[in-house]
Structure formats: C-alpha cells, structure tokens
Write a structure and sequence with these properties.
- By secondary structure, the chain is an alpha+beta fold.
- It has one domain.
- Helices cover 39% and strands 17% of the residues.
- It has 6 helices and 5 strands.
- A hairpin with a 5-residue loop joins strand 4 and strand 5 (75-77).
- The model has no long low-confidence stretch (mean pLDDT 91).
Length: 145
Amino acid sequence: MDHRLEGFTPVVALMNRIADSGNKHPRVRLDLDGTPLVLTIAGAKARTPGSVYLTDGGRYPNNTYFGAITPDGAFKHTAAAAKLDQAVKDLLWTTLKRMRNGEAEAVFAENGKRLGKCCMCGRDLSDQESVERGIGPICAEKAFG
C-alpha cells in the first residue's frame, strides 16, 4: 500500500471524539473551492463500521462518495475522487494531510471564517468570538474539548 495513504487515525479519532461528546451523527462540513466535502462516521451496519466517509453531503444514493478513512487510518479513495478537477484534488489532499498532522482545528476555523458558518452544525456564526474562531462554542467544545 502507498504509505502516503496511511496514518489518518487522527481524523478518525477526531470524529469519534465528536460522537462521544453526545453528537449521535457527527458531520463536518468543509468546502474545497466550491466543492463540498462532508465527513461522517459509518454506522454499525455499514460495510466498514467506524470508518470516516468523505462525500459531497448529498443523501444516499444520490451523493458523491469520494472515499473513506478506515478505523486503522488508511485512506481509500474512489473513482469519483480521481475524477475531481486537479485543483480540487489538491485541496482535498492538502486538507486531509493537515487534519492528519493535527491541524483539524485550523482547517475548521479557516472554513468557518470563509463561509461564515460552523463546519459542524452548519449554523451561521454570529457572535464575534465564534466568527474569529470560525466555529461555534458548543461545537468547538465537542471537537476540541
């Protein structure tokens, strides 16, 4: 296996931490230059329970599935990810590497500041502190303690 596609357990751990905080169906909504990227956790009945799915956020079966990060941290991409515009593929890869390297909070903040919405709950960021952090206070607590 390509070693560049391994080591993504910090992303899985982050999503599990969000789930363990009481968020039954955690979602992280990011934007890759106009292409939505939504991270969710596969349920117990999924083919690979506990994996982090990467989609465009649409409802199954009409969504675009970009791949999954398995519980052991391997990123398995799909043909849909390979068909993305090269600039979007580069953004996807950069975003995943940053999250793997412990920069998830910065990634969330940058998306939130740019879009004016919390990347976890999707609500508008209204108070000044939330706008500056790029994530709402409740969601920040759930994700980063």
